[in-house]
Amino acid sequence: MSRSDVLVDADWVEARIGDPGVVIVEVDEDTSAYDKGHIPSAIKIDWKKDLQDPVRRDFVDKTGFENLMSERGISNDDTVVLYGGNNNWFAAYAYWYFRLYGHDQVLLLDGGRKKWELDSRELTRDVPERPRTSYTATEQDASLRALRDEVVAAIGKRNLVDVRSPDEFTGRLLAPAHLPQEQAQRAGHIPTARNVPWSKAANEDGTFRSDDELRSLYQEEAGLDFGRDTIAYCRIGERSAHTWFVLHELLDLPNVKNYDGSWTEYGSLVGVPIELGEAR
Amino acid sequence: MSATPAPDGCGAPAGGVSVSAATGTQAVVEGRVTREGAPVATGYARLLGSGDEFVAEVPLGDDGGFRFFAAPGSWTLRVLAPNGLRAERSVQADNGQVTKVEVAL
Question: Residue A241 half-sphere exposure, CB side, CA atoms within 13 Å?
C-alpha cells in the first residue's frame, strides 16, 4: 500500500460522481449531517445503527456486513470511497471495517466532509437509489483487530499508541472536550503507551500530513520503534482507526492493530494496570 | 447531570449543539458564530490548548452554535468557515460555569 492506493483528493472524487463502478459513502455518527447535504451520488452509513451490533458491544458480524452492503447496493467489485465528519474519524473506522471484511477497493477522501465544505464544493440533499446487490464478505481479518487480553499482554512488549487528547491520556478528562464527561470507570492510560493524539496526523483542514511529517511524528517525536508491532487505541476505536489508517495504510507498517474496545473497555476492566499523568 | 444526551461515540451531538447544557461540575465553553448578523451554519469551531495543541472540534449547528466540555483553564477558540474565513478568541473555562463566546466573522 501507499498513499495513492488508499487516499484520494476532492478533485478525484468530483470527477467520478456518477461513475457506475464508484460508490461514494458518507459515514457519520451524526447522520443529520448527510441529511442536510452530502456529496452528489453519495449514500450514507450510520456508524452506530449500521455498523454496531444492536445488542452486544461489538460490530456487526460477517452476515450483518453482507446484508448492509447488499441493501445499500454495494458490490464486491465496486470501488468504495469513504468520507465523513470529525476529520474522517468514522470514515476511517468504516475503512478499517471494509478491510476487516475483505473489501479491497476502498479509498478515503482526504480531508473528508470538512475540506469539501471549506472548499465550498457542491452538496445535495438528493438521495440516490441503488439496486440491491448480493455481497459476499470474507471472514474477519484478525490481524487488524486487537482484543483486550492481547492488549494487556502487549504492555511493555509492543508499541501502544494512545491517540486521545493529552488531557484524556493523563487522566484529567474521560472524553473529548466536545462531549459530556462520562463513560469509563477510571481515567488514565495503558502503561507504556505513548500519547500521539490523532490530530497531530491531520492538517487543520482535515487532510493527512505528508508521509515524511508522519514518520517524523511517530518515530522521532514519539519514539515509536517501527520494527515492533503496534496497537492503537482511543476511547471507542474510531479516532484510533484514523491512526491505524496512517500507520498501516499510509506508512505501510505491517503489524498494526486497532483496539476498538479502547478506553471505554480498558478503563472499566477490573484489575488491569493503569498509569496516570505523562508517559513514563 | 441532566439535559444533554450523551452520544455513544466521539462525534458531534445529533443536530449540532442547539440543545442546552446543564454544566454540573463541568467547564463548558459555548457560543455562536455569525456573519453580518446571520448565523454561520457551515463551519467548524476548534478548541486549542497552549502552543496551539488541538483539543476538540465541532461542526457549527444550524444556529451557528458550538459547545465544548473542556477542562478548566485557558483555551484558544478558532473558527474556520468557507472562503477562508477564520477567527480566534481566547477563552477561560471554569468548573460549573458556562463561558459564552460570540464570534462575528
Answer: 24
**Please, what sign has the CA dihedral across residues A266, A270, A275, A277?**
positive
- Residue reference for cell 460570540: B102
At residue A178, the pLDDT reads 66
ipTM beyond cut 0.85: no
Of the candidates B79, B7, B97, the residue with the CA atom closest to the CA atom of residue B43? B79
Q: Residue A189: enclosing H or E segment and its boundaries?
A: none
Chain A residues with CB-CB distance to B10 below 8 A: 29, 86, 89, 175-176, 179, 234-236, 238-239
Q: Which CATH class is domain B27-104?
A: mainly beta
Q: For residue B93, list its beta bridge partners.
A: B73
B1-to-A7, A180, A192, B90, B96 alpha-carbon distances in Å: 42, 9, 34, 27, 11
- B11 pLDDT higher than 90: no
Specify whether A162 is located in the same domain as A89.
Answer: no
Domain boundary among A102, A121, A140: A140
Chain A residues near any Cβ of chain B (below 8 Å)? 28-30, 32-33, 36, 47-48, 85-87, 89-90, 114, 117-120, 165-167, 172-173, 175-183, 197, 199-200, 204-205, 234-236, 238-239
